[in-house]
From TrEMBL:
InterPro entries per record: TadE-like_dom
Pfam families (UniProt xref): TadE (PF07811)
Species in which this protein is naturally found: Thermalbibacter longus
Entry protein name: Pilus assembly protein
Superkingdom, taxonomy of origin: Bacteria
Occurrences of domain TadE-like (ranges): 10-52
Length: 135
């Protein structure tokens, strides 16, 4: 009776040792997906804040340094990486009225924890926000 209990304990230990790497990999991949989603949300917040600053007036719409500072002020870094902020302006005509708009793009090259052949070393994440400029 005692030998069969020891054998089952040893079997459980072997099964756990075989399953542990897979469990650790699943936890790491889940953490990376969560980090990527967090970065995506933070990039959206940064782009929105930059566009909000640019939409205040026609003068702020062309102030790319001010737009970048407003966006970076929303969240300085994402997991230690600083995103790239770009802005542009344009016009659009609707119902014979011309509107001016500002577009802010926030981009980050996300680097996952787990890096093996199917998963690239960096994944580009980009968010773009467009707002109409107030007159």
């Amino acid at each position: 009776m005692r030998r069969s209990v020891q054998r089952l304990t040893g079997q459980s230990l072997v099964e756990f040792a075989l399953a542990l790497p897979l469990l650790v990999l699943l936890v790491a991949i889940t953490a990376d997906v969560g980090r990527a989603f967090t970065a995506y949300i933070e990039l959206g917040n940064m782009a929105r804040e930059g566009a909000r600053y640019g939409a205040i007036s026609p003068a702020t719409a062309v102030d790319s340094a001010g737009i970048r500072n407003a966006a970076i002020g929303e969240g300085t870094t994402i997991f230690g990486m600083t995103p790239t902020i770009q802005s542009s302006t344009g016009t659009e005509t609707r119902n014979s009225q011309t509107y001016r708009y500002v577009t802010v793009t926030a981009r980050l090259d996300f680097e996952p924890f787990i890096q093996f052949p199917p998963i690239p070393a960096s994944i580009p994440i980009e968010r773009e926000v467009t707002m109409m400029v107030l007159r």
